[in-house]
Amino acid sequence: MEVYKRVIKRNDPCWCGSGKKYKKCHMQADQETNRKHPPPKNRYAKSPEEIAGMRRAGAFNGELLDYMRSFVKAGVSTGKLNALAHEYTVSHGHVPATLNYRGFPKSICSSINNVVCHGIPSETEILKDGDIINIDLTSIVHGFHGDSSETFMIGAVSPEAGHLVDVTVEALKRGIGAVRAGNHLREIANAIEPYVNSQACSVVRQYTGHGIGRKFHEHFSVYHHRADDCENVVLEPGMTLTIEPMINLGGYEVVTDTEDKWTVRTKDGSLSAQFEHTVLVTEHEPEILTLTPSEKAAGEIVILNVHNQ
Ligand code: MF3
Ligand code: CO
Ligand code: CO
Questions:
Q1: Most exposed residue of 19, 96, 115, 164, measured as fewest CB within 10 angstroms of its CB?
Q2: Residue 74: CATH number of its domain
Q3: Strand 254-256, strand 246-248: pairing
Q4: Is 295 close to ligand 1, i.e. is its CB under 6 Å away?
Q5: Does residue 219 sit within a domain?
Q6: Structural contact between residues 126 and 221, judged by C-beta atoms closer than 8 angstroms
Q7: Lowest mean pLDDT among 5-9, 127-131, 237-241
Q8: How far is the CA of 7 from the centre of ligand 1 (A)?
């Protein structure tokens, strides 16, 4: 703290450029994280041009998610959903980010029931009544990434599955609620994990949110679980990141398919759900870049897409 104290005093303007006094802004966060010196200003923050690019990418990804809604129902194959998302993206002049990303073979991830994430769409995998499925979409729009996902309930799902999906939506909302300039990254996990545990569910630890921009997965990881090795990052206006809690009905442990090397399942076979948005840190409320048109119309951050047929 010594170096820092010489540089900035309680009543000085905060280093982040908010215009607030240091004591009313980052002082507490800096003390809590035992920051030794002032961080470079806006280390991770994007420029106004980059933010404009991220807004366009997020908006397109939200439109794509709304486009997909009517197709996600019993009887459709995940391979067909992949083809629909691919064609919509390409026909708008954009690029599906997951296709060939580190060797991932498809344009969406589709993760059914006990699949936690990174499920590979297939022509032979057919949605059926009672399934829950996460569709994770990522688009590259003029060089910038938008990344979001929803878990859909197909027809009449079990009360347990409904509970899990409700808890996961609420976990995302709470995580987004912790996205405030001056908050430490760990506030996001603090907002999510105790709540999830109180609902008899668990937070997957092996996969996290992430910084996002020109690259799919940028710089810091965004933990949804509380852990000592959470990176020492204070949120600053202009940063863009994803929040994407994966929540299990059973334990948090996961296993990766040894054959396809992608599909991640719960170790105990329990159901898993996930919701994801890409968000921008601002001086005030976080801006959810991947809001879908239907979410915007409803004024709700996550609209459940329930098909009862
Ligand atoms: N969309 C996922 C995320 O939210 C990442 C998928 S990477 C892939 O970060 F390779 F599996 F496609
Ligand atoms: Co993501
Ligand atoms: Co994603």
A1: 19
A2: 3.90.230.10
A3: unpaired
A4: no
A5: yes
A6: no
A7: 5-9
A8: 41
